[in-house]
Amino acid sequence: MKQLPKIALGAWAWGNDGTFGGSLSAGTLKPIFDAAMEHGLNLWDTAYAYGMGTSEKVLAGFLKDLPRDRYLVSDKFTPQCANGKPSAMADMIEMQLKLMELDRFDIYWIHNVWDAPHWTQELAKYFEGRDNVPLLGVSNHNLAEIRQADEILKAHGLKLSAVQNHYSLINRSSEDSGILDYCRENGIVFFSYMVLEQGALSGKYDTRHPMPAGSARAETYNPVLDKLEVLNEALKKLADKHGVGAAQIPVAWAIAKGTLPIIGVTKVSHVEDAAKAAAVVLTAEETAELEQLADSLQINAIRFWEKEMK
Question: Which domain holds residue 73?
Answer without folding.
Answer: 8-297
